[in-house]
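Figure 3 (text version): structure tokens given as input.
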């Protein structure tokens, strides 16, 4: 029983200490969680601070002699409050964001959250019920009083816990690496002209589904009425039980007030008028429409919240569906400041034309000009260290640098990415960074990497634009006379 009580206390200390510190590190989220669970706005700020302090106090009390039993009582009381709050919200059909461990872990409160807190409450109840005499020895003294057998059992349990944590960390790393690989595969497919992955939501250019929905004040609004002012219309799909949606509401209210001349923002939610009104009143959000369930969101293929889409003035879908707060912020920025059409790059310069001169900083910050290379043929190589094709070509390029024959051109690498990434390549030739929006490659007709063109000793184009590692390496092995003769 001594070992069991000690393990129970350790579990409670770890849970409450991590939860309290994580909430203190994200007080804004803690206070928002209080509002989401129904705490009045005037008390939410104070309770959002008091809760993590109470959790830390309970954890400390469980360790310190004379207060250990009181700490267990406090932990049990907090857990019972959590259980009651979660059960009440679930009974009302709401799943607010629990913010249980701050930004370390936060998810909508559901049955799993309720069960987890009930289990922890059982652990705390065990300590309260059988640890009344804990006012004597603290955890340090309890460790000292352990028998050898109990010590090995405790060590074995700790090792199993460490293995589980390690496996979880490895799984997280594998999933992160897989995500990076998928992004690179997607970029490679796009570079090779493969069909891009389907964008979420309705296809851009398709007619926006019509709707007729009631508002919070008894009014009825249609898609046509919202479009009547001739501005882009942003439809924001939300839910009163969605924590990330609630966190975004103050920004939405600000967008509605500050950018009314450029766009119109309407919220499409679900649930009762009272539940939605409680969410939008304080941030000052207007134009909230209520669907019966999720029929309008599903018509727009918005299967999660928060998400948003722009409807053009002509009633067609103007953007892919933005999912999540960051994507919605980016969508707002793009809608308010549409990017100018990029100039079409030239198809490639003709042999004999003067090569466009440029000046860019090298890896040491010194300005380098193409004209500095006059007097000898120069291979201008357009490069990006993070490009998969460039990575595979790098060993061959370094071998060419080492064994370049007489008459081989000089190499001038016009690269992107960071100085550190470029230094890590270990190239001997001059590398300049095109990071200031100059886009030197477009002046030569280079729309990707690796691509290269040969410039003769007089500063004129001496070859066609080479694309891909084999063509670039072949061009690097030819001198100016051979290229011109070809």
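Below: residues designed for each position.
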């Amino acid at each position: 029983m001594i070992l069991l009580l000690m393990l129970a206390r350790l579990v409670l200390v770890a849970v409450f200490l991590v939860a309290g510190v994580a909430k203190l590190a994200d007080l804004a989220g803690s206070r928002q969680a209080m509002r989401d669970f129904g705490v009045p706005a005037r008390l939410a700020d104070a309770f959002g601070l008091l809760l993590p302090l109470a959790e830390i106090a309970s954890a400390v009390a469980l360790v310190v002699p004379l207060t250990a039993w009181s700490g267990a009582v406090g932990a049990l009381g907090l857990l019972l409050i959590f259980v009651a709050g979660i059960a009440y919200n679930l009974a009302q059909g709401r799943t607010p964001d629990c913010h249980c461990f701050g930004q370390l872990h936060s998810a909508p409160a559901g049955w799993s959250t309720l069960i987890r807190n009930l289990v922890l409450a059982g652990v705390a109840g065990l300590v309260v019920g059988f640890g009344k005499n804990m006012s004597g020895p603290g955890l340090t003294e309890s460790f000292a009083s352990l028998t050898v057998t109990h010590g090995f059992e405790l060590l074995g349990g700790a090792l199993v816990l460490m293995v589980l944590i390690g496996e979880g960390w490895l799984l997280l790393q594998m999933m992160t690496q897989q995500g990076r690989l998928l992004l690179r595969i997607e970029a490679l497919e796009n570079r090779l002209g493969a069909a891009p992955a389907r964008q979420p939501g309705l296809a851009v250019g398709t007619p926006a589904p019509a709707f007729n929905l009631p508002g919070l004040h008894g009014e009825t609004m249609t898609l046509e009425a919202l479009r009547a002012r001739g501005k882009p219309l942003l439809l924001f799909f939300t839910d009163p039980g969605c924590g990330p949606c609630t966190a975004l509401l103050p920004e939405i209210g600000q967008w509605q007030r500050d950018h009314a001349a450029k766009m119109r923002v309407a919220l499409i939610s679900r649930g009762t008028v009272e539940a939605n009104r409680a969410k939008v009143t304080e941030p000052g959000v207007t134009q909230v429409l209520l669907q019966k369930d999720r029929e309008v969101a599903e018509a727009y293929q918005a299967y999660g919240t928060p998400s948003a889409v722009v409807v053009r003035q002509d009633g067609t879908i103007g953007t892919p569906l933005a999912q999540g707060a960051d994507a919605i912020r980016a969508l707002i920025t793009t809608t308010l400041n549409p990017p100018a059409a990029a100039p079409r790059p030239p198809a490639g310069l003709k042999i004999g034309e003067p090569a466009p001169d440029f000046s860019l900083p090298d890896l040491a910050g010194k300005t380098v000009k193409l004209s500095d290379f006059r007097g000898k043929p120069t291979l201008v190589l357009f490069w990006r260290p993070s490009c998969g094709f460039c990575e595979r070509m790098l060993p061959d390029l370094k071998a060419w640098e080492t064994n370049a024959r007489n008459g081989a051109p000089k190499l001038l690498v016009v690269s992107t990415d960071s100085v550190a990434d470029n230094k890590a390549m270990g190239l001997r030739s001059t590398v300049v960074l095109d990071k200031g929006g100059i886009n030197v490659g477009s002046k030569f007709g280079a729309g990707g990497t690796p691509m290269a063109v040969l410039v003769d000793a007089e500063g004129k184009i001496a070859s066609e634009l080479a694309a891909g590692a084999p063509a670039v390496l072949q061009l690097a092995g030819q001198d100016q006379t051979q290229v011109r003769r070809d």
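Residues 2-146 form one domain.
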